[in-house]
Design goal:
Blueprint: H1 2-15, H2 33-43, H3 45-61, H4 71-88, H5 96-113, H6 119-141, H7 147-172, H8 178-198
């Protein structure tokens, strides 16, 4: 189990630099249907990194399986959807792209340090960042048909990525400390690259 987790982390770390192309328009502006929405978080490394990192951090920092594992993932998925609905409604937030990049910096640091936060605080931290991820998606979907199905696909993929992160993190809780640190550092590096482009 630890060997598979190590290989998965190494693969994710190698894929992260491929996304230094920033967030908006990563799929060419084409959004339609459940399948496209489901694939979007899997093909944009900023989403992939953020969502897996939420699960990783939840597992690595948890003092007990229940309810510590679920605070941050549920908050991220829920606020991602809320942000997307805000974007669809035309709500404008300042500094969306810098905040998405900042989310990777913060999540990467949380993974690397395994800081435990009270459940409500953990939910609030990831929830704020998830709103910005969601608003970016909502703006992209605003003129598209089938936005509801696309959002459903995105949320489904988000939950699965959170679960993947939780599984990897749980396997690494008592393993080599350097693997989570390396994963966190890779997410921080991606966030720094995106932030340098966004400002």
């Amino acid at each position: 189990m630890r060997h598979n987790a190590s290989k998965t982390l190494a693969l994710l770390a190698m894929l992260l630099p491929l996304a230094a192309s920033a967030h908006t328009g990563a799929d060419g502006g084409v959004h339609h249907g459940f399948t496209t929405g489901f694939l979007h978080p899997l093909t944009g490394a900023d989403h992939l990194a953020a969502m897996v990192a939420v699960g990783l951090w939840s597992a690595l920092a948890a003092r007990r399986a229940w309810p510590d594992l679920l605070w941050a993932p549920l908050a991220f998925a829920g606020m991602l959807l809320a942000g997307a609905l805000m974007g669809l409604a035309g709500v404008q937030l300042p500094a969306v792209e810098p905040m998405i990049a900042a989310s990777l910096l913060v999540l990467g640091l949380l993974v690397a340090t395994r800081i435990h936060l009270p459940g409500a605080v953990a939910a609030a931290v990831v929830g704020v960042f998830a709103v910005f991820h969601g608003v970016a998606h909502g703006h992209e979907l605003a003129s598209e048909q089938g936005a509801a199905l696309t959002l459903a696909g995105m949320v489904a993929a988000t939950v699965l990525l959170h679960l993947a992160g939780i599984g990897i993190g749980w396997a690494l809780r008592h393993g080599n400390a350097w693997l989570p640190r390396a994963a966190g550092a890779a997410v921080v590096a991606l966030g720094a690259a995106l932030l340098s482009q966004a400002v």
